[in-house]
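Work Package 4 report. The design task specified in the project plan requires that, given a folded chain encoded as structure tokens, an amino acid be chosen for each position. We show below one input record used in the internal validation round.
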């Protein structure tokens, strides 16, 4: 299984050489190539890559993940899989969309896909994806927590790819007794320790990562992981074999 990151930037004004384009993920396994998320500031190389892809998955309808939130994008004619909540969030829709339901498994060519509801936004429901080929990954680029049992989602996976909006700054908010926002990388590393996940890749990078000295960031991640979790901060163009 090959994993690539065309973009790794969150919905922030700041950008850098390493984090210029909105977060997205390409997974390649056997004869199947998929893209997860296609945001407003997408890597322009994706327009060429899309011709080689089999389908697109969408986590939610915020514009850094879903270009159709605010504009039509008729050049994309491969299937776009998304929840009904995401499809109905805006008037613009992909040309070839397929509705999926959270909690149900889908066999899409060589990959098994399952969406899980996550806590993130009060008005824009989001999911993370568990994707299985010869290895199993979970992709949750915008997350405060999983709505259901984390053990069901995270147990036995080979890699977690998750939200880098905050290293250790609280970004949890509450309205009408409901929580929303982003969890900290420090907390995500704690999930990895609890459920035996040895590899974590951070994407959807926020202001703190972009502004933090690289040595300080490395030291923080080493402190939190305590040698039990291999933590990598992805950058635009980062590629790995799992």
């Amino acid at each position: 299984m090959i994993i690539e990151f065309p973009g790794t930037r969150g919905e922030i004004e700041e950008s850098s050489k390493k984090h210029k384009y909105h977060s997205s993920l390409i997974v390649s396994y056997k004869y199947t190539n998929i893209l997860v998320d296609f945001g407003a500031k997408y890597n322009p190389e994706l327009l060429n890559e899309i011709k080689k892809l089999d389908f697109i998955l969408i986590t939610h309808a915020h514009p850094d993940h879903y270009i159709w939130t605010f504009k039509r994008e008729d050049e994309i004619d491969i299937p776009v899989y998304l929840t009904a909540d995401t499809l109905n969030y805006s008037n613009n829709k992909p040309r070839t969309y397929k509705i999926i339901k959270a909690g149900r498994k889908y066999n899409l060519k060589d990959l098994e896909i399952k969406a899980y509801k996550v806590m993130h936004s009060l008005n824009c429901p989001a999911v993370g994806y568990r994707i299985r080929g010869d290895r199993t990954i979970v992709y949750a680029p915008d997350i405060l927590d999983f709505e259901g049992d984390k053990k069901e989602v995270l147990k036995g996976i080979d890699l977690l790819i998750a939200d880098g909006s905050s290293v250790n700054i609280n970004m949890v908010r509450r309205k009408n007794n409901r929580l929303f926002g982003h969890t900290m990388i420090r907390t995500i590393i704690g999930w990895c320790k609890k459920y035996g996940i040895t590899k974590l890749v951070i994407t959807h990078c926020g202001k703190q990562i972009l502004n933090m000295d690289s040595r300080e960031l490395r030291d923080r991640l080493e402190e939190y992981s305590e040698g039990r979790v291999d933590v990598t901060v992805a950058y635009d163009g980062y590629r790995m074999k799992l």
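Residues 167 and 185 are 5 Å apart (CA to CA). Validation will be extended to a larger panel in the next phase.
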